[in-house]
Each structure stands twice: as C-alpha cells, then as structure tokens.
C-alpha cells in the first residue's frame, strides 16, 4: 500500500482546555471551531491536524494516515485484513469528527490505534497562528512525525514496513537505545519506533513533531517556553539523521512535542538506509 502522509493526530485529555492553551500559546497552532464538539487545531490548508477527545485518561488516542482515494483505501484495508488483523469501519460520527470521507481503523502490534483514511477536508482560509508563526512545514509532507515506543520492536517494525509499506530511513542499535525511522514521503521520517524496553516504558506515543520553516522561530518558541516556564523535556539540539534543530516540551496529555526546523528530505531513488551512531549531533540534553 502507499500511505502518503501522517494526516491527523487525536489525543485523549482529561482537561481539554489545558491542551488548547498549550497548542495555541506554546505551539502556535490555530484553534478552529469545526462544530465537532472537540477542540481542534490546524497548521496548514487541512481543516485540522490535531483533535482533542475529552477522556478520563491522557495520551495519544489515534493516528490518521492518508491514502490517495477511496479505492486505495479499500485496497489497503484489505491488505491489513489479509494479515489477520481486525479492521473496523469508521462510524458516521468518527468521520464527522475527523472531517474525512472514509476511514478504517485497527491496532498495530503494540496496541497503537492506526487509522487509514481518504478525503481530508481542506480550507482556503489563510493560516493564522496565535504566535505569529508564518507557516508550518506540512501540506503534502503531512503534519510532522510521531515516535512510538514498543516493547516488541521487531514485530511492530515488520508490521509498519511489510504491511503498511513504510520504508526504512535509518536505524540505531543500542546507541544508547534501539530505534528505526520510517518514511512514506520525502520527509525523513513520518514515524519512528523506539524500543520501549530500554526506557522501561509501555507502548505509548513518546512525541509528535511539528516543523516550522525558520530556525529563528524555534528560537522564539524557546524564548517563550523559558519565559513562561513551560516544562522542557529536552533542551535545544540537532538530530543526527534528519538534521532537525529542535527542542522538546511536555504537553498536558503526557505526550511530548518536538518543535523543530531544518529537517532534511530524502529521495527514494538514491537513499540508502544507514545505521546512525546515535540520536544527536549535539544538545537535546534532558530537562531545563
Ligand atoms: Fe522526533
């Protein structure tokens, strides 16, 4: 199958208003009212990229991955089902909340809810960031990337590569942890899988990444985070593989956000997966 991009993310939140404050004031996403009964946020011409579900738990709820059209989606659903994974059709309400034409969902081997969809609603309204961010690097590259922890890395990786069709960008082994970075479009990685055994954490979404055009905007966001005492998970640094200049903040739902600029693009015609020596060129030290 040919997944084209990471289209949307849904988060469970016990306090959606706190996430709204975070998404707008810290991340500079635009809050939009789509009359879905949920806070939602945009960063580009998609009507929304992040959706918040009121819940008695906090954390990632679902990831939406885009297929080009209905027939591609149906074929993809069939390929997943053929592996013995139970695939469920979206309800009308789920389609309305996500503002997509069609969607099916299932669980990956680590229990993360994966949604495949086609037909995301777009808007021609100009993007208007509450923090004045001119634009995010999104559109056909997708909303950014996610990093999932899994206690069964080999099995989870096989599912994303062999069934869902992601391609390996690069990987690291015990340096200090083991992880694999996967792409579905020129963005260096739209998803990475990290060995949860190393961190002794369950199968959760560790972070989602938003990318902006200008490294100065990362610096301005850093100033804001410092001034407002937003909890920092990892200080500014640069990643080895995608070259991202970024820092990590803690969202109110427990999933971190990587906020970065300068991510590299890769060309499948010439790209060779490689074993990286470690995650960082410099920086990304933990805490304040
Ligand atoms: Fe990342």
Give me the secondary-structure topology.
Elements: E1 5-13, H1 16-26, E2 30-32, E3 40-42, E4 50-54, E5 59-66, H2 70-82, E6 88-89, H3 92-98, E7 100-107, E8 113-120, E9 145-150, H4 153-163, E10 167-172, E11 179-183, E12 191-195, H5 196-199, E13 205-212, H6 215-228, E14 232-239, E15 245-250, E16 256-261, E17 274-275, E18 280-283
Parallel strand pairs: 1-4, 5-8, 9-12, 10-17, 13-16
Antiparallel strand pairs: 1-5, 2-3, 3-4, 6-7, 7-8, 9-13, 10-11, 11-12, 14-15, 14-18, 15-16
The structure holds fe (ii) ion.
Task: Report on this structure.
Strand 11 (179-183) and strand 12 (191-195) form a beta hairpin. The protein folds into two domains: 5-120, 2,3-Dihydroxybiphenyl 1,2-Dioxygenase, domain 1 (Roll); 139-283, 2,3-Dihydroxybiphenyl 1,2-Dioxygenase, domain 1 (Roll), CATH 3.10.180.10. It has helices spanning 16-26, 70-82, 92-98, 153-163, 196-199, 215-228, and strands spanning 5-13, 30-32, 40-42, 50-54, 59-66, 88-89, 100-107, 113-120, 145-150, 167-172, 179-183, 191-195, 205-212, 232-239, 245-250, 256-261, 274-275, 280-283. With 288 residues, it is an alpha+beta fold. 21% of the residues lie in helices and 35% in strands. It is globular, with a radius of gyration of 18 Å. The protein contains six helices and 18 strands. The strands form two sheets. A ten-stranded mixed β-sheet has the order 17-10-11-12-9-13-16-15-14-18. An eight-stranded mixed β-sheet has the order 2-3-4-1-5-8-7-6, with helices on both faces. The model has no long low-confidence stretch (mean pLDDT 97).
């Amino acid at each position: 199958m040919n997944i084209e991009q990471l289209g949307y993310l849904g988060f469970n939140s016990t306090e959606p208003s706190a996430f709204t404050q975070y998404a707008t004031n810290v991340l500079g996403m635009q809050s939009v009212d789509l009359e879905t009964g949920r806070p939602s946020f945009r960063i580009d011409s998609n009507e929304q990229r992040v959706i918040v579900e009121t819940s008695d738990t906090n954390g990632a709820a679902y990831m939406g991955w885009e297929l080009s059209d209905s027939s591609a989606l149906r074929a993809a659903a069939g390929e997943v089902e053929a592996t013995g994974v139970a695939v469920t059709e979206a309800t009308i309400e789920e389609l309305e909340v996500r503002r997509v034409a069609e969607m099916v969902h299932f669980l990956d081997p680590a229990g993360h809810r994966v949604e495949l969809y086609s037909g995301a609603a777009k808007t021609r309204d100009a993007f208007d960031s509450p923090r004045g961010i001119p634009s995010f690097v999104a559109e056909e590259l997708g909303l950014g990337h996610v990093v999932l922890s899994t206690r069964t890395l080999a099995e989870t990786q096989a599912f994303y590569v062999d069934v869902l069709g992601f391609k390996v960008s690069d990987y690291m082994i015990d340096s200090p942890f083991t992880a694999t970075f996967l792409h579905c479009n020129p963005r260096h990685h739209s998803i990475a899988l990290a060995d949860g055994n190393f961190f002794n954490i369950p199968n959760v979404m560790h972070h989602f990444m938003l990318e902006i055009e200008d490294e100065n905007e990362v610096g301005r966001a850093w100033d804001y985070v410092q001034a407002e005492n937003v909890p920092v998970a990892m200080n500014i640094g640069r990643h080895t593989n995608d070259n991202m200049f970024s820092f990590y903040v803690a969202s109110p739902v427990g999933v971190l956000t990587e906020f970065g600029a300068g991510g590299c693009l890769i060309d499948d015609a010439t790209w060779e997966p490689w074993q990286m020596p470690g995650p960082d060129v410099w920086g990304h030290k933990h805490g304040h």
